[in-house]
Amino acid sequence: MRRHLVGTIALLMVASMVLGACGPKAPPDFTGRTITLYHFGDLSGPYAAITAPLVHGAEDAVAAVNAAGGIYGATLEIQFADTAGSIDEAVAAYDRFTGADDNILFMITYGSGEVEALAARFAEDKIVNITAGLSARGFYIDSGYTFGLGPIYPDQFGLVMQYLHDNWDTMKPEDAGDEIKLAYISWPTAFGQGALTSETRAFLEDLDIEVVVEEVYDLSPAADTTTAILNAQAAGANVIWTNTLAFGVSVILNDLNALGLRDQFVVATDNWGMDLATYAYMADPSYGVGLISAFPYLWWTDTENAGVQYAEGLFAANERPAGEHNVGYLLLVAGVDMAVQAITHAIDTVGWDNLNGEAVADALIDLSPFEALDGVLRPDYSGGSRSPHVSQIRMIQGGPDAFNILMDWTETPDLRPVE
Amino acid sequence: MAILRPAGEFDTSYASDMATIRRPWQWCLLLVFLLALFTLPFYASQGLVALVNRIGITIIAVQGLSLLTGFTGQISLGQAAFMTAGGYVSALLVNELGWPFLLALPAAAIAAGLVGLIFGLPSLRVKGFYLVMATLAAQFIIPWFTRNAFQDVLNGAQGLNVQVPVIFGVEFNTPQRYIFLTLTVLVLTTILAFNVTRSRLGRAFISIRDNDLAAELLGVNLFKYKLQAFFLASMYAGLAGSLAAHQLRHINSETFTLIDSIIFMGMLVIGGLGSNLGPIFGAIVVEFLIEAATLLGPFVAMIFPAKSAGVVQALRPLFFGTSLMLFLIFEPRGLAYRWQLFKAAWRLRPFSH
To answer: pLDDT confidence of A13, banded at 50, 70, 90?
Structure first.
């Protein structure tokens, strides 16, 4: 009898252990601990005008994550450093941050130049760099820990050129011929020249697109692009690509209209070029009509999307000024969500004690492809890629915010450089 | 300042008259200072070490400008461009030709010196404002060249990733290690600057600065000495450019800009023209001001959220411009002169006059 009783108790204990293991596991609790995201951008240099919304987007998103309980109770913190758009300052900020914290998981950067300069350091120190500075060199030359929020500029450029090639009959200016002749008019910077690589040149050659002129202009809202445009016209160009942002695109549109040449060119740009901030520098909002850009995220007007609704709620709750209702804010709310997903996945995989940059990098790859902020961003780092390979193409077809979809999410050409 | 020494103290030989450091305790102080500086990585934070590293490189560039502008009176706004030349040469020699950094560094200095000679040529025919314009040309031509010439080697606007210096198997890949390189070069350039300025060469420089016509009448070859000053200044810039490029691990046409050249000039004014301590004081003060503006930026942005970009953008120029203006009004001879006065007052205590 006693033997039966002992056996029954043992059986019940084993059964309860098995059932316990099969049941829902209590989430870990890291209340009282802190995870810091390091974040640097240009608040006092040439890109300052667009950085403030990025900073505020990150701050608001982090505050919202903490208000919702943080990451398994751990508080998310954000530290910002101003780089003044200079590589020197970016390296100084990096040194300051890495000197103060020997287990940094994430850094968030924007400038292509600083991404290129810091790429080797990120790889050496095994710190994940989530960046909006999408120059290919920063991702694939002496790199390994740089992850893009969008496709690299060569991929964006390739996608738009492919689209124009496939739809030239409907897209071409009235008097243009059957061949696409491209003028690359951009800033003389790592960002400005970031799309025109040997890979994209070969790609254009395959598409029979001829680069007839390459011109540069000053990184300034007061730059004069008249000569560059007239040179493009003289060379027979019918498409202008500018790898710039906001005021970089605006000065070209202003000068094209001033010269009365707007209808002779298709003007196309990278993701940063089509933004609310672009209108701040345009002499007339109608000048923006017809601008085409790669668009690797959703926009504020996609109000049916839960992620956009969330970002809109944060924006309103924090009473941000209307001028910041632009790409920077939205992108960073999504970027923080991406960081939270990666950190959460890394904790689930390796635990808190082994949480480091390497684990977070593995998590980003392991999660891929995934959606950040309910599809506002579509990161994908699978197959050795460190930037997503999907984007929309949008066109301005009205006033500010009328960034209409010309082509829905499509795979971009893979024009990454050979490592 | 020798006249402000206490009564009864005389130099009894030419060597003692020319000595930079006169007393044993001064040697002791210098050694303690150097020891503190070279052991900085062992007790200071990485951020501070990186800042000191940056200041060290800046001092080298400003020392060159001091020889040219402070001692020879040839105003140049091309110092940052010569840094670009040095940085690119060093990067190419190490990256492409596999030269060791220790050889590439002096080669970069010489190459930048030669580039400086080209832009120094107009100095014989023009001076003052017109020479400023001639040197300003360097600040446009050299970056243009790096962007547009030999794109397959120089990589256009995107520039070059630069290898970390490796010396005897040690990689200088952290601020804590790199500072030893910077400080060693800085000590050497400081010794060279002190020695140049008290030599025949330095006296010729000063005579050209004070009155070039009189100097020429006295037999000073203006062409030769002005070009030597340009060569030396650009050589210093080349050293600084090489050190900076390898420390940043990257160089492009934007790394050293016209703004840097202007700031170097401001450092020289704040530190004191015509003094070897001027570049050191000036670079330290201005770099700390810039650092303060950088660190204050995010806080100021929080205070003025609606105008954050504009306000923060104004901080650096505001700090730099205000300090430069105040120095020009209240102490145009710079901090080095103030330091001399302080030392004299200390020596003559309790009689300050």
So the answer is: low
The arithmetic mean of pLDDT across residues A86-113, rounded, is 89
Instruction: Count CB atoms within 10 A of the CB of residue B179.
Output: 24
Nearest to A87 among B156, B248, B316 (CB): B248
CATH number at residue A90: 3.40.50.2300
E strand intervals along A105-145: 106-109, 128-131
pLDDT at residue B353 greater than cutoff 60: no
Domain count, chain A: 2
Residues B147 and A193: their CA atoms lie apart, in Å, by 10
Q: What is the pLDDT of residues A126-163, one digit of tens each?
A: 999 999 889 888 888 778 899 999 999 999 999 999 99
How many beta carbons lie within 10 A of that of residue B90, not counting itself? 33
Contact state of A189 with B47 under an 8 Å Cβ cutoff: no
Asked, for residue B287, whether it belongs to a domain, the answer is no
Domain for residue A84, yes or no?
yes
Q: Do A88 and B253 touch (CB under 8 A)?
A: no
- The residues, any chain, with a CB within 8 Å of residue A161's CB and separated by 6 or more, are A180, A182, A200, A203, A204, A207, A209, A241
Distance from CA of A363 to the nearest CA of B (A): 28
Question: What pLDDT is recorded for position A116?
Answer: 87
* Tokens linked to A367: 């999660």
Name chain A contacts of B255, Cβ cutoff 8 Å. Answer: 87-88
Does residue A53 have a pLDDT over 70?
Answer: yes
Residue A419 lies in a domain: no
For chain B, what is the radius of gyration of the CA atoms? Answer: 21
Of A89, A100, A138, A148, which is closest to residue A294 (Cα–Cα)?
A148
Residues A92 and A168 in one domain: no
pTM of the model: 0.85
Where in the sequence is the domain holding A134, given as residue range(s)? 34-151+302-388
If you write DSSP's letter for every residue of B330-344 in order, what string do you get? Answer: H-TTHHHHHHHHHHH
- Residue A253 and residue A373 share a domain: no
Chain B CB contacts of A44 below 8 Å? 293-294, 297, 312-316
How many domains is chain B built from?
1
Interface contact B151, partner A, CB < 8 A? no
Q: What is the pLDDT of residues B127-154, one digit of tens each?
A: 888 888 889 999 999 999 998 898 889 9
By the 10 Å C-beta count (0-12 exposed, 13-18 middle, 19+ buried), B6 is classed as exposed
Nearest one of B239, B217, B215 to B226, comparing CA atoms: B215
Q: Domain span at residue B240?
A: 23-257
Q: With respect to residue B6, please indicate whether it lies within any of the assigned structural domains.
A: no
CA distance A29 to chain B (A): 32
Backbone angles phi, psi at B35, to 5 degrees: -60, -45
Kindly report, residue by residue over A328-346, the tens digit of the pLDDT.
999 999 999 999 999 999 9
| Residue B52 touches partner A, C-beta closer than 8 Å | no
> Are residues A128 and A186 located together in one domain of the fold?
no
Query: Is residue B321 less than 8 Å (CB to CB) from chain A?
Result: no
Give the C-alpha separation, A242 to A24, whole Å.
Answer: 53
Say which of A82, A98, A116 has its CB closest to residue B158: A116
| Contact across the interface for B313 and A51, Cβ inside 8 Å | no
Percent of chain B with pLDDT over 70: 96
Using DSSP bridges, classify how beta strands A210-216 and B166-167 pair: parallel, antiparallel or unpaired: unpaired
> In this structure, is residue A102 part of a structural domain?
yes
A202 and A228 assigned to the same domain? yes
Is B289 part of the contact surface with chain A (CB cutoff 8 Å)?
Answer: no
The CA radius of gyration of chain A, in Å to the nearest whole number, is 24
- Asked if residue B176 belongs to a domain, the reply is yes
For strand B170-171 and strand B166-167, is the pairing parallel, antiparallel, or unpaired? antiparallel
